[in-house]
Amino acid sequence: MTWLVVALGLLLLVFLHELGHFTVGLAVGIRPRSFYVGFPPAIAKFRRNGIEYGLGSIPLGGMVRIPGMHRPSPHDLEAFTAPAMREEPSLAPHVQRVRRLLESGDLAAAHAALPELQRQVEGAKLSSGARRSAGRALRDVEEGTSPEAYWSAPTWKRVAVIAAGPLMNILVAFVIFFAVYTTDAPTGNPTTGVAAVEAHTPAAAAGLRSGDHIVAVNGRPAHTFAAVSRDIRASHGARITVTVERDGRRVTLGPRATTLLDGRYIWGFSPQYRSVSYSAGKSARLAADDCWRVVTGTGTALKGIFNSGQRAQISGPVGIVRTSKQALQIGFNWYLQLLGLISMSLALLNLLPLLPLDGGHILFSLIESVRRRSLAREVYERVSFAGMALILILMYIALHNDVTGAGPR
């Protein structure tokens, strides 16, 4: 159940990110062509007002297809329809007509000529590969020449649609932080209560349970978590007994030997923390402060890529899931706080000025606004290749930390 809650939380963040793109796209007239919960192939789908809504079989958040991300290319049209023209030469005149219109810049005429080419392709006897390739070419031209095409929209609309995804994640993070502070915000003050017991540890073997309250270690009274921790660490691997209050009675557990982890002796449990609630005004200020701390922390982490010591603090999907599970075991509000941090981090990562990230598309929209003409798809692809290389390096560092345990624990 814990793993399910963690997975649903992470998927929800990605889904809300895509929902931001989708909602603003509709609002400004760049109508998306599809919106999926998960990724295709579809388990179920339906079409309404020209938009395909579907439930994907790959549960990785959501997907929005925005029409006409790039100016339609005559070269791409010819390249992708080439297999179909080889199998059915009669298609060539129709393809060349649309191609010439694209080359001349008469996009409205190309859009008007496209239905005839589509009818010819549909009636031709083609292999599945040739038909699929031709279908992609026709879709790119149709979307790229439509009045709703992204590439031809005013700069402010393009920036709004792309920025909506990260801004949705920032809003979600703020709402999560605000909700936690107004209800039951965890503090940094641990108690002698047991929040969670780690599997395969001395505490689990001795029968320690979530909800127990530790009152003594080796018979020595312990009124604070600091005292409990001090006595456990002082064991140096020896067998200890732990006395707890459980259901109104005292129970002595053990003896069980402590175990060494990261240079200190532990028994294998997480403490409960004191919590506090704040007024709406103070909660809003604290939530904003938390969002800003993620901004500054992310900047430090990115600079730390070039520092081997700080590089170990970067965590990937495995580390995020592991930490989320631990936070959820301690308390739901702890998990919510972590989910807010992840939502902010997702927003900031997507705002990096690198293609194919959202920040890269925003940057290129501004560049095209200054140039007063669009960049070719080939330019986007070359820059995206460089951006993907940097993203893969970052992912490699994060996954390496996850596997080796070098990341934050």
Structure characterization notes:
There is one protein chain. The chain is an alpha+beta fold and 409 residues long. Among the domains are: 74-145, no CATH class; 188-276, PDZ domain (Pdz3 Domain); 280-404, no CATH class. The chain contains 14 helices and ten strands. The strands form four sheets. The chain has a four-stranded antiparallel β-sheet with strand order 5-4-6-7. The protein has a two-stranded antiparallel sheet with strand order 1-2. A two-stranded antiparallel sheet has the order 3-10. Helix 1 runs antiparallel to helix 6, helix 1 (2-28) crosses helix 11 (317-330) and helix 2 packs antiparallel against helix 5. The longest helix has 29 residues, at 155-183. The relative contact order is 0.11. The mean pLDDT is 88.
